[in-house]
Amino acid sequence: MLGSATLVVAVAVGSVPTQSEILEVEVQGPSGVLAGTPLIPDTGDPSPLVVVFISGSGPQDRDSTLFGHKPFLQVAEALAERGVASLRCDDRGVGASKGDRSKATSLDYAEDAKAQLRYLIDDRGFDLRHVGIVGHSEGGMIGAFLAAGPNPPIAFAVLMAGPGISGGAVITGQTEDLFRAARVDPGLARVAVERNRALIDAVGAGAGEPEVRPLVREFVRAQIECDTGHAPAEPAVDEATRELAVALVNPWMRNWIRMDPAPAYARCAVPTLALFGGDDRLVSPERNVGPIEKASRDAPVKPEIVVFNGLNHLFQKSGKGTEDYAAIKTGVEPEVLEKIAVWVSER
Which residues have C-beta within 8 Å of that of residue 5, sequence separation ≥ 6? Predict the structure, then answer.
């Protein structure tokens, strides 16, 4: 059993119609204390539904804040309006949370999510049959693994832009899609994508930095040529090669490249809602929906898959399909919030 919550502050939430309160709590995670915000609607239900949020890649705070957008806060408030409680924690080593993320992988972040789930069940008394997750991007892939049988630690899952293919395939697909969106010369793009794939395959196979560096150099050279239309200067290639070679062989990247959610979808054991933005170029529905459908064909529980046309990776209106979050002033679209809130509240 995990340690009891540490109460820091309680304030009213004016934007949520139901009487609710926010309690700052501390959850003991595998690598240190995770600081979080439970949002508990005052509905009178002694055992309400509750979700844990699992963030995407990179250091994320509890609201998954990016360029002023706070998608997890938006979803939490939409759930609260339907009487669904939630817990949002800063990632390990981010904000008020402790812990070392320098060597952490998606598997470690899955353990952080499990710690939050156990806290809700063991310390706060929530019924396991009422506890689920909302995961975005990398968090969506983690959520797919948590939803797999035979003994899932959750009762339902909402996966927002969660990949249906391996992390390595995600990276190569992103490269190809971004070149296409930028209208890069097809011949140049083809070379860059092939070199990207060779590089990713080598890292996934366990190649070290000395073996990876020549492959990085060839990819960097091809990428710069795609961006500029001419052969790059060697100093620029040297600098980019040094940075990328180190980044590619870190534990998180190597594990991400190898992770494949297909076996998890094949064992999906709880109701699962998989959402995609039609204009998402990071986890595109064109590359990911088909594999999820194929993998889950004989699963105990088939996921419900919904694609929202015209929305990006953060489920915002994307204009011309851009992922330029800083230029987009709106947050998660109301239709997405409504879908999540209604679907969860009906579990």
Answer: 23, 25, 26, 27, 119, 123, 124
Q: State whether 201 and 334 are in the same domain.
A: no
Structural domain ending residue among the three candidates 257, 292, 324: 257
Find out whether 60 and 125 touch, Cβ atoms under 8 Å. no
Secondary structure (3-state) at 19: coil
DSSP output for 174-201: HHHHHHHHTT--HHHHHHHHHHHHHHHH
Residues present in the chain in total: 347
pTM, entire model:
0.91
What's the pLDDT score for residue 236?
A: 84
Q: Of 257, 277, 294, which residue is a domain's last?
A: 257
* Prior bond of 235 cis (ω within 30°): no
pLDDT at position 227 is: 86
Kindly state whether residues 103 and 151 are assigned to the same domain.
Answer: yes
The amino acid that residue 293 corresponds to is E
Distance of CA 259 to the CA centre of its chain: 13
Tell me the per-residue pLDDT of 18-34, one tens digit each, with 9 for 90 and over: 334 457 899 999 999 99
Nearest by Cα to 317 from 280, 274, 273: 280
Write the CATH number for 20.
Answer: 3.40.50.1820
Q: Which domain holds residue 273?
A: 10-165+259-345
Together in a domain, 203 and 183? yes
Alpha-helical regions (H) of 182-333: 186-204, 209-228, 234-248, 251-258, 262-266, 285-295
Shared domain for 150 and 37, answered yes or no, is yes
User: What single DSSP character describes residue 58?
Assistant: S
Percent of the chain with pLDDT over 70: 93
pLDDT one-digit tens code per residue, 169-209: 999 999 998 898 889 999 999 999 999 999 999 999 999 99
Strand 20-23 to 32-41 pairing: antiparallel
Asked if residue 329 and residue 250 are part of one domain, the reply reads: no
Say if 206 falls within a structural domain: yes
Residue 315 domain-assigned (yes or no): yes
